[in-house]
Design goal:
The complex is a heterodimer of chains A (224) and B (230). Chain A is α+β, with helices and mostly antiparallel strands and 224 residues long. Chain A contains nine helices and four strands; from the N terminus they run E-H-E-H-E-E-H-H-H-H-H-H-H. In chain A, helix 1 links the parallel strand 1 and strand 2. Chain B has ten helices and four strands, in the order βαβαββαααααααα. In chain B, helix 4 packs antiparallel against helix 6. The model of chain B has no long low-confidence stretch (mean pLDDT 95). A four-stranded mixed beta sheet of chain B has the order 2-1-3-4. Classes of the chains: A alpha+beta (224), B alpha+beta (230). Chains A and B meet through strand 4, helix 3, helix 4 and helix 6 of A and strand 4, helix 3, helix 4 and helix 6 of B.
């Protein structure tokens, strides 16, 4: 049960946040957890490496089994605890297909936003190009427009269908992260509506990144 | 059934290969399929864009359901056709958890592979650097060593999540097949070599083996040993 689970996490990390949302939704509060600091390099500490040889957060153990990839943990928890808490994957095959599609599309959104947010971190000085920066921004803009479009078609405040699903678990933290980094609510009104609409859902409120609560938003994405 | 399915695919694309392996494993041969050319930019053609606004392959339709992410298709097929063909998600919780973990690590594995073998396709000429390619190769080596370690721990003859073939193998083998297709040394990566030999004989893998790793014979010739020395 929850007492057999351990989560090592960092504040503001969408992958960590996804697992925390699922644990709340499946009524698995009471899991062992430890907040670590990326800045202090604690994600490379021995206690993390023992669970996750990649030295990344989240580092999550369900009993003896490490599930360090956030989607892996989410899928596994939904399967194992199918009969408790919120049903995150519906039985209807058509809706399931849509949910699966959106879950895996989040990768593209994460990649395109990371290369813009962290360009100078990822690319050494001698390899940086203005043409690349420009292209990355254009790619992110195109990606965001796709998601605006998906939410335009969505009717109930969830990314797929009429209920909160695994797709929201995976998508929401990434969307929130973008707004935390200055994404314009005027330019992306549907994304902003989605972001605000789910803010007070109990599982999301309970797991809201602590370092965001009193911190001003970053501005990195304000011109996208 | 298979006749209500359409797959648009390209040769040498691990994501396309994943879907084809899954279709074979679930006894869904006879699906409609069309081989498109990346070189001729057919993945950006209207017929693809109509189904997949991202202009990417694979693009998959089953009746009215459109699924363009290879992992999503694999999960979908296993769910819809659970009672036929190979059981791809094991019941045992520990094996299932390991399957999920390896599947999602498989995304990282594929990224690191792409950053090396598809470098020229993702980075415009004026932005390429030897230093970047070198760094990408080092990252791929680190990743390969991780997978060597995973296979070492499980022992000979094992699949990625344990004794049975699972979705983890469906989605990760195409990446492994591709690394050896580009000249990776089985002497330097014996466990991966063993895994490759085990799976290359599997009917679903054989039936869907890519016609070419790279479409253009000149590219193929130039890059066929890209991974020989890593």
């Amino acid at each position: 049960m929850a007492k057999d689970m351990t989560l090592l996490w960092g504040s503001g990390s969408p992958p960590c946040w996804r697992i925390m949302i699922v644990l709340e939704e499946k009524n698995l509060q009471g899991y062992n957890q430890k907040l670590l600091s990326f800045e202090k390099g604690e994600h490379k500490s021995k206690e993390v490496m023992e669970i996750n040889p990649r030295g990344q957060l989240p580092a999550f153990k369900c009993g003896d089994v490490p599930l360090n990839e956030s989607c892996a943990a989410c899928f596994h928890l939904e399967c194992k605890y199918k009969s408790q808490g919120t049903k995150l994957i519906p039985d209807c095959e058509d809706e399931k297909a849509q949910i699966l599609q959106r879950v895996f599309e989040v990768n593209a959104l994460t990649e395109k936003s990371s290369i813009v947010l962290y360009y100078n971190w990822i690319v050494p000085e001698g390899e940086r190009h203005d043409s690349a920066v420009k292209r990355n921004k254009e790619a992110l803009t195109a990606e965001l427009k796709l998601w605006e479009g998906y939410l335009q078609k969505a009717s109930s405040g969830f990314i797929v269908g009429k209920d909160f699903s695994l797709a929201d678990v995976i998508v929401y933290p990434t969307v929130a992260y973008l707004f935390q980094n200055g994404l314009s609510e005027q330019r992306y009104p549907k994304l902003a509506e989605y972001y605000k609409g789910l803010m007070n859902r109990p599982s999301i409120k309970a797991s809201w990144p602590p370092t965001w609560k009193n911190a001003p938003k970053q501005e990195t994405l304000k011109d996208i | 059934m298979a006749k209500d399915m359409t797959l648009l695919w390209g040769t040498g694309s691990p994501p396309c290969w994943r879907v084809m392996i899954a279709l074979e494993e679930k006894n869904l041969q006879g699906y409609n399929q069309k081989l498109l050319s990346f070189d001729k930019m057919e993945h950006k053609s209207q017929q693809v864009l109509d189904i997949n606004p991202r202009g990417q392959l694979p693009t998959f339709k089953h009746g009215d359901n459109v699924i363009n992410e290879s992992y999503a298709v694999c999960f979908y097929l296993e769910s819809q056709f659970k009672s036929q063909g190979t059981k791809l998600i094991p019941d045992g919780p520990a094996e299932q958890a390991l399957m999920y973990q390896r599947m999602f690590e498989g995304l990282t594995f594929y990224e690191k592979l792409s950053a090396v073998v598809f470098y020229e396709w993702s980075v415009p000429e004026g932005e390429r650097h030897e230093s970047a390619l070198k760094r990408n190769k080092e990252a791929l080596v680190t990743e390969l060593k991780l997978w060597e370690g995973y296979l070492q721990k499980l022992g000979s003859g094992s699949y990625l999540a344990g004794p049975s073939f699972t979705l983890a193998d469906v989605v990760v083998f195409p990446t492994v097949g591709t690394v050896f297709g580009f000249g990776l040394s089985p002497e330097r990566y014996p466990k991966l070599g063993e895994y490759y030999n085990l799976l290359k004989e599997r009917p679903s893998v054989k039936a869907s083996w890519p016609p070419h790793w790279l479409e253009n014979p000149k590219d193929q010739d130039r890059l066929k040993d890209a991974l020989k020395d890593i």
